[in-house]
UniProtKB/TrEMBL annotation, chains A, B, C, D:
Residue intervals of the Arginosuccinate synthase-like N-terminal domain: 7-170
Cellular localisation: Cytoplasm, Cytosol
Species per Swiss-Prot/TrEMBL record: Oryzias sinensis
Keywords, comma-separated and alphabetical: Amino-acid biosynthesis, Arginine biosynthesis, ATP-binding, Cytoplasm, Ligase, Nucleotide-binding, Phosphoprotein, Urea cycle
Pathway: Amino-acid biosynthesis; L-arginine biosynthesis; L-arginine from L-ornithine and carbamoyl phosphate: step 2/3; Nitrogen metabolism; urea cycle; (N(omega)-L-arginino)succinate from L-aspartate and L-citrulline: step 1/1
Protein name listed in UniProt: Argininosuccinate synthase
InterPro entries given in the database record: Arginosuc_syn_C, Arginosuc_syn_N, Arginosuc_synth, Arginosuc_synth_CS, Arginosuc_synth_type_1_subfam, AS_cat/multimer_dom_body, Rossmann-like_a/b/a_fold
HAMAP family: Arg_succ_synth_type1
Catalytic activity as recorded in UniProt: L-citrulline + L-aspartate + ATP = 2-(N(omega)-L-arginino)succinate + AMP + diphosphate + H(+)
Keyword Repeat belongs to the record: no
Chief place where the protein resides: cytoplasm
């Protein structure tokens, strides 16, 4: 039988993508299994063997952790990237990282097709596919959960299990949690299943990356984070002298400390790109520490009006990334502008991590615009307080005119 | 001797404004002492007696707590008002509240002058005076800390103490804290003195409104907050059944719970309107709980795109209020728009307060745009996953074109 | 044969929608022909007869001109709605007007389906359908130009002509212009065909609504436009005393004057919602006059900072409307905010229309914030020029600090 | 007598700054007269002699025309800089150009002071002085029109004339126009005097830079403008073959053509930084042509979403420049971002200039994202119209949900 061509499948090792792998073969494709290591807790060798046993033509297990931190987490730190005021986008920034390598493999292997196991209602399908189209415009995408032949055949987990048994796909021995989960170096997200009811509280044993603050240590860890160009270049634990200075090591250590103290748990309802509201629970320990520390050093070193403009760009960046446009002309542009704004974001922040919280304790910088003498209540310095009278009166010109007009119109304040 | 006219002085009962009161008399003014109760911890009767003894022509002690909550805190809650991503503006929203009454008194008493004890480097002078000019355009403002005759005479606390002794002004018996402080129902702020060094950590005994999270209870309080039109109309403590439903009572209760669990402490450097960076430490217990709860119910009930526009308006609102433009045509306009956006922000949020943190547990609303069936992974419903393919491909049109052009230009991704 | 149901077809009387009408019948639908009069030059009675002869079950010819002006053009005037700095959106605002009535008819007639002749690459399909879905969520939409059975059958005009002949559809006797065109009260747009080459100049005889400025009168018309709440309530031609004060009459008169003087011709490339660039030529005579006049009276009467916020909302409004979201929660919200901003936009503007241009000559308003005495170079009035020194020096605090830091960093200006 | 120090005075050669020169000497300063040639019509040698005769210690006449075009006009073209939708800011961009050289001279000559003749109610004082403070933070500024001793002595033109006669300052022989005027390469502005009444029409003989469109040629000039990096690199008159390719030559030629055809006249009310509304009349012939041409090539070559973000940055840029913040960290940042956005803004625009209007005729670019095949109505190409159905339906998810909720709330559309 003639092959329909080669598909690079983003393979997770789980039941869904295992069934997809077999199903794609059934449809006549050669399948290359591609498994990205972005820091999730996974037995990659077992996954390799499984993919082999299912008939993958070739298997790529790629350690993307370093580039995930440097190329995706770091720019997000510079941007103070938060979607809808709360979500740090651990999943959203992982998708372009995974898909970028996937299309590199597809190009290298001459595959015309890529495939993934993302569902048809979610954001991830969009993030995967926009990345693929942006970097490999002529690629063809097979999204089984949007193909009626597939989704009508696999209407529930039971169908997948039966299919697995029929085709010799090893099935999970532990029962599935009543929610779905996505893990990487940045965060773990939990959604669907019993969490779909937005009123139901998350069970306390759901969290895997962070300790319950009620059970976390009664002593804080005190860290000093050093930044240059808006990204951390060193973290030192002042409690025990431990110090890290490579990006992946820094981030992993912040995860460790944040996890130990229960930092970064949120329970939110968010707006998906496709216009639905969904409920998600996230834990982002290291990312939360970094956000707080970066906000502090940034405000300390950046001009006020640059900060205001950059804040708007950061919000834009977050929307773009959440919606899957990491690889787009506008996101390239925004990233460039944000990176430019970070040139003086340099210095050290002292902070304490304790019981789910991050407390900023102090900061210092050779590039700070903070001028202790200028602001001091005890020193007049170069500043003439009389100038403030003129400043205020000129700012009031407009307000007084407005009042005059209101008087004319007979309106009341 | 002819009086130069009548001044309404925003009087705090402290050393500075007591000296100003006497100094204004010395300059030939009749002085009306005006003391606003906006929830600070103060012996108002003692302050009245002190003002009388210093020769105030008249004394107004005004309980503004209810209007502070309803007219100033509530609109800020609707706006999710946060300045520079962190500061909840407890001082900034108190100033227009205080000054509004001050000019009402001035108008009623036929006073042409108002005066205050705010310094010449800070934001508060601006907030006070812009409010005064906006509501009483022809008013004349006496800001002693910007008048050379005054500030050259009182170069330090020692000069004030000597003046006080000379003019029989009672002097504080307890030594002054090595920082200055501003308290009201919303928050306490701490700044200057030893805090001017941005690296120096705040001493643990600084905080008066919140308990140290290390010493706070080991059991959370679980609250249910009910909102209508984007403001709380009821709070119930699910732990003990206590319930409040009047604005001032609700807010005071949230302060109590937040304070008990150490919620709302921040240490930041911020950008003043006059272009200096300053370091401030704030504790905003009830306001922090409210911000988190409101964000949750708002995102749950508000359309995604309305939310995006409203988020921008909220940032604008925060800048305006921080800079002293509460009473301005643009802030009126923004407040109106934000209030409009809150019409469906209605429902209940469950949350837990523990060790300095606020954890959202769940939410429900009769007005929610959340559609459990639509978003469910287990129900297809009205939603056709195939539509997503078209959605993604159309979104990719532009990205693929961009890639085509890049190919042309010989550029690299 | 059982009918598949009833379709309300947006019928234009032209070849395309006539073929669609017959084709829908062929597919088993009952067809209601709906023809909206939004000011295009059309023989509506001939169109009615044609639809009857083609077997339409029912025919609605609806005069929407008044509501088009009042409900769609007027809010756009308030918004200064311009897409991508140039396009006044005559087509974009007509689509929701047409589709609103279409779904009213569908609901009233119990039709489950609506249909239209818009192409699959354009914006209009989106504008029609988003309106339909927003106002009649359960409606089913038949878009033949996106149905393979249809578009594969009708690959070019020749196929339509053959089909027309076969089914007795009257065919146009005049040859089709080598571009397509969309006309209504607001504008005529020209695109595709020979205009698809963005370098080809539009032929001079293309324009139907405006005279060539080279041939337009050598004398201007001088108008006075009176506004209230940001919309015109009266226009008077000062040259001849002609005066109009009903919305449709005002707008039609402005079209007449603008057309006579060749006002409002543009040739642009724009970005469609679906991510393509397209070239369009537009003539919007009355709308162009109104935009200029409204901008003038608005700036004259609106506070500067309100104007700045409102300018942003106007740009947002334009994007939403261009993209088809007239009926959306966010567009409702933005329209509400913009309308609020217009409460004082009242007064008279004098302008001259000549050779393709609109020249503002002067303006007056009972609500203006313009204060001739305040601004006068010859009168000092209440304004103290010394205040400006303080204003400037305080604004410079930040700039001087920045310079200090740059010195530190050794950077050059 | 000891000199109080050296002042660099921005000298225009006119009556005001001649009096200021003498007055500064009277006050005990050494005065360096600095006269910038930014393209105004001026007898510079006569001005030099005059300054000499008035006792200037040194005289600098600086030809800044080239740097005005390259460093100030070009970035404004890239930004599509327009203040409040109409004003092209010819004065606002000249001020930092002039003041930059002024502080260079002051530094070089060891002068601690700079001075200018701008009034105390206007924008120019701010633009001059913010530039000076930004580039020479320790400079001292003498603004006579804000010094009571000066402005009380010179309450009107009569006082200046008397002073001039007393001190041998040559007085103008022609009567002053009943308005004031500011001219440079970019524009001439007219304001104050009889123009302070916003209803009074500008007299037809006011304009000096542009011909009255009624008297302009009856034949257009047709130009081709070539852009690279968002700035013009060549202009060719297709009518006569004349071609220019150096910045100053290009801009001067556009002024010539625009002036010949009466392009760029506006009569507006604008909001000054200090909160007043003022009426200004401007003629900006070359700048208006450039704005239209740049808008066209930019939209033709720039990605839609980049354009949207850049549009916001351009508005911000305009506000900053209008308010005098050309030299500020935020304006540096915005200029950098805008310049980045222009990297692909390259190609040729054909346009016709006629009777006060600029008509775009066509455009071409090697970097365009315009895809004639993709957008063609006659070619399906790679585009699948069925995708649009999914795109629309997904965009409608949110709108349909909103309608569902409205039904619940019993609200009406």
């Amino acid at each position: 039988i003639m092959s329909k061509g080669t598909v690079v499948l983003a393979y997770s090792g789980g039941l869904d993508t295992s069934c997809i792998l077999v199903w794609l073969k059934e449809q006549g494709y050669d399948v290359i299994a591609y498994l990205a290591n972005i820091g999730q807790d996974e037995d990659f060798e077992a996954a390799r063997k499984k993919a082999e046993s299912l008939g993958a033509k070739k298997i790529f297990i790629e350690d993307l952790r370093k580039e995930f931190v440097e190329d995706f987490i770091w720019p997000s730190v510079q941007a103070n990237a938060v979607y809808e005021d709360r979500y740090l986008m651990g999943t959203a920034i992982a998708r372009p990282c995974i898909a970028r390598r996937q299309v590199e493999i597809a190009r290298k292997e001459g595959a015309q097709f890529v495939s993934h196991g993302a569902t048809g209602k979610g954001n991830d399908q969009i993030r995967f596919e926009l990345t693929c189209y942006a970097l490999y415009p002529e690629v063809k995408i097979i999204a089984p959960w949007r193909i009626p032949e597939f989704y009508n055949r696999f209407r529930g987990r039971k169908d997948l299990m039966e299919y697995a048994q029929k085709f010799g796909i090893p099935v999970p021995v532990t029962p599935k949690a009543p929610w779905s989960m996505d893990a990487n170096l940045m965060h773990i997200s939990y959604e669907s299943g019993i969490l779909e009811n937005p009123k139901s509280q998350a069970p306390p044993d759901l969290y895997l990356m962070t300790k319950n603050p009620a059970d976390s240590p009664n002593e804080p860890d005190v860290l000093e984070m050093e930044f240059r160009n808006g990204v951390p270049i060193k973290v030192t634990n002042e409690t025990n002298g431990i110090s890290k200075n490579a990006p992946l090591e820094i981030f992993s250590y912040l995860n460790e400390i944040g996890g130990k103290h229960g930092v970064g748990r949120i329970d939110i309802v968010e707006n998906r790109f496709i216009g639905m509201k969904s409920r998600g629970i996230y834990e982002t320990p290291g990312g939360t520490i970094l956000l707080k520390a970066h906000l502090d050093i940034e405000t300390f070193t950046m001009d006020k009006e640059v900060r205001r403009i950059k804040q708007g760009l950061g919000i834009k960046f977050s929307e773009l990334v959440y919606n899957g446009f990491w690889y787009s002309p506008e996101c390239d542009f925004v990233r460039h502008c944000i990176a430019k704004s970070q040139e003086n974001v340099e210095g050290k922040v002292q902070l304490s991590v304790f019981k789910g919280q991050v407390y900023i304790l102090g900061r210092e910088s050779p590039k700070s615009l903070y001028n202790e003498e200028l602001v001091s209540m005890d020193v007049q310095g170069d500043y003439d307080p009389c100038d403030a009278s003129g400043f205020i009166r000129i700012n009031a010109v407009r307000l007084r005119e407005h009042h005059r007009l209101q008087g004319f119109s007979g309106k009341k304040q």
